[in-house]
Structures are given as structure tokens and as C-alpha cells.
């Protein structure tokens, strides 16, 4: 299965900054006919709207609010590709006083939010001749990073959900891509204390290439590529193996 961005209508959650903004810019550069900017605060996309005009449409979408996701889906019936980029990170190790609250928040957005978005847009994507669903996971979905244990746990859960979505979407003709960046130069990376990181454009470019190749995984940046070098054989033998009947 292969997916080309050219001429397609996309929806990107968390499109106003960081990786989401880079994806919007890359998709438009690759010939997307329209990109829905799905964000909690519509005012945060004013600059993008001024830059791209009728190439972009802002929608209100909060990954923690199922009603807002369903409403966005009713407004984006023409969408061909959904990129679920919105996510949160809390600094919490397993013994931290805030660990339980942090995990609850991260699960609500990073995992339940993914499920809400997938459920809302599945019927729309299933009607398209060519469709794709992209989930922003992380290298932390494979390897726990102790200061961010709760975030790592939520991303591991999201990665598992993504695998289930791949198996459910395949018969519907919907390509699924699981994206696993390492530290990327974003506000989230700054919060996590990563001083050296790759640009957000590396993730956007990796997504476009992986969709065209029909891949399930993409490890787009320098640190992620190192992880993938060690993980590849397991992924090929286990994760990418045909689903059990």
C-alpha cells in the first residue's frame, strides 16, 4: 500500500506549532489540496492561515474531548489523511508524587485521544479511494526514559493501539503509519531538557517518504535511526508479521 500527499485533503491535530506545523508546511509543499488545522485554540493558527490562505482551514479539536473530535469529523468529511500529532508530556518518574496524575493526563490525551480520533474518522477514511492514518508515537514507545516514565508508558500504549488500528484499517484500504521520533526541536523537547535535537522538518519529511513507500514504521531523526537499527529485526519478525487470525 502506498499513499501520495499530492492532491489530497489532510487533517493534522496539534497543527499550530512544532511537529504539527512542520507537517502542515511539508504537506502543502508536496501538493496537498487542503489541510485542516485541528487545534484546541483556533487563534493559534492565525499566522498559518495568513500564510496559506484557502489551503488551510482551522477546526477546533481537543484530543481530550470526544464531542469536539466528533464535531471536527462532521466538518472534515472530505479528508483523505488524518495525522494524529497532538500529545502531552509530563516529567514524572515512577516514584514521583505526581506520577499517577501525570499518567492519567498523558493516557487521556496520548492514548484515549488517539482512539477517539481513529473512531471518529474511520468511517470517513473508509469511503476514500486512497486513505491514510498517521500516529505520532515516539522512541519512548519502545524504550522507557526514566525521568519521563509515565510519558513512555502512554506512548507504549499508543504504539500498541496503533498496531491494532493497522490490522483493523488494512481491510478498509487505509494505510497506517506509526511515527517514532527521538528528541525533536520543539517546546516538548525543551520541557524534557533535550538541548540537542533534530528539526521538526525531519519528522514531516520522514512521514511523506514512509507513506510513499507503504511502510508501517518510520524512525525519522538521527537518534531514532539508531534505535531502529537495533529494533529492525524484531519489528520485521514480530510487529510486521501478519496478524493472527
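Q: What amino acid sequence fits the structure above?
A:
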Amino acid at each position: 500500500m502506498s499513499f501520495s500527499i499530492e492532491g489530497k485533503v489532510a487533517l493534522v491535530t496539534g497543527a499550530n506549532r512544532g511537529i504539527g506545523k512542520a507537517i502542515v508546511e511539508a504537506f502543502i509543499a508536496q501538493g496537498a489540496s487542503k489541510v485542516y488545522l485541528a487545534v484546541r485554540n483556533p487563534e493559534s493558527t492565525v499566522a498559518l492561515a495568513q500564510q496559506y490562505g484557502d489551503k488551510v482551514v482551522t477546526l477546533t479539536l481537543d484530543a481530550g474531548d470526544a464531542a469536539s473530535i466528533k464535531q471536527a469529523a462532521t466538518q472534515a468529511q472530505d479528508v483523505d489523511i488524518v495525522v494524529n500529532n497532538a500529545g502531552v508530556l509530563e516529567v514524572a518518574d515512577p516514584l514521583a508524587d505526581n506520577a499517577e496524575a501525570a499518567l492519567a493526563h498523558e493516557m487521556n490525551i496520548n492514548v484515549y485521544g488517539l482512539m477517539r480520533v481513529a473512531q471518529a474518522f474511520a468511517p470517513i477514511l473508509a469511503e476514500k479511494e486512497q486513505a491514510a492514518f498517521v500516529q505520532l508515537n515516539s522512541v519512548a514507545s519502545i524504550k522507557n526514559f526514566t525521568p519521563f516514565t509515565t510519558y513512555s508508558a502512554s506512548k507504549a500504549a499508543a504504539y500498541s493501539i496503533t498496531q491494532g488500528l493497522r490490522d483493523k484499517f488494512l481491510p478498509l484500504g487505509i494505510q497506517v503509519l506509526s511515527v517514532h521520533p527521538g528528541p525533536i526541536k520543539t517546546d516538548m523537547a525543551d520541557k524534557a531538557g533535550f538541548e540537542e535535537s533534530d528539526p521538526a522538518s525531519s519528522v514531516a519529511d520522514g512521514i511523506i517518504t514512509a507513506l510513499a513507500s507503504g511502510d508501517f514504521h518510520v524512525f525519522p531523526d538521527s537518534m531514532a535511526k539508531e534505535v531502529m537499527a537495533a529494533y529492525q529485526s524484531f519489528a520485521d519478525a514480530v510487529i510486521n508479521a501478519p496478524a493472527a487470525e
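Q: And what stands out in the fold?
A: Residues 9-239 form a domain with the Rossmann fold fold (CATH 3.40.50.720).
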